[in-house]
Design a protein that fits this description.
- By secondary structure, this protein is an alpha+beta fold.
- It has one domain (11-169).
- Helix content is 45%, strand content 12%.
- The protein has helices at 11-21, 38-42, 57-66, 77-82, 84-100, 105-128, 137-143, 154-157, and strands at 31-36, 44-46, 52-56, 159-165, 168-169.
- The strands form 2 sheets. It has a 3-stranded antiparallel beta sheet. A two-stranded antiparallel ribbon has the order 2-3.
- A hairpin with a 5-residue loop joins strand 2 (44-46) and strand 3 (52-56).
- Helix 1 (11-21) crosses helix 5 and helix 5 (84-100) runs antiparallel to helix 6.
């Protein structure tokens, strides 16, 4: 006999938040967008010699996130996967606050901002932890650093969030996120 145990690691809270915020029109549903985006994402990334390159921060992020002609160092997808339970728990907590406020849009905006800050902090914390594989010795010699994904910090600083409230963008974040004391906190 086989026994299967389904352990909820935050999906229920995430699903409940999505259903509660659903306006019936997906284009009008509030959400938080996290990644390399906006003006900082479109900035040209410096070449190793310090001059501008043809690559934007978005393009550089895509190359490393998916391993296009370089070793894959997923800093967004892997972080979301690794911390899905903590993210779901936070989303559930913010949803409860929103429900207690009787659907106050300001409380929903606040919760989405806090969630965005939390996830951006997790992503940056992952980058600071030296995502494997290590840099090649030639890369270390060129960068004068062994830390993968960081030379000048432009890519890391371009990781932001935007809160979208019912079809419009709430003021985009220029924040660097905050490293959480603990992922579950």
């Amino acid at each position: 006999m086989i026994t299967i145990q389904d352990i909820d690691r935050g999906w229920e809270a995430t699903e409940k938040a999505a259903k509660a915020a659903d306006t019936g029109n997906p284009a009008n549903a509030p959400y938080v967008l996290i990644g390399v985006q906006g003006k900082s994402g479109q900035r040209k990334h410096p070449d190793p010699d310090g001059t501008g390159s043809d690559l934007t921060n978005v393009e550089l992020a895509t190359i490393h996130e998916f391993g296009l002609n370089v070793p894959q160092r997923s800093f967004i997808r892997r972080t979301i996967d690794e911390y899905a339970p903590a993210i779901g728990e936070r989303a559930g907590r913010y949803l409860q606050r929103w429900e207690k406020s009787q659907g106050n849009p300001k409380e929903l905006d606040r919760g989405l901002r806090l969630l965005g800050e939390f996830i951006v902090g997790l992503i940056k914390q992952r980058i600071d932890a030296h995502i494997p594989p290590p840099n090649h010795p030639i890369t270390i010699a060129i960068k004068k650093s062994a830390t993968p994904l960081i030379r000048y910090g432009h890519l890391k600083r371009s990781i932001t969030y935007e809160v979208h409230m019912g079809g419009g963008v709430s003021k985009p974040s220029s924040s660097g996120g905050f490293p959480p004391a603990s992922a579950g906190g």
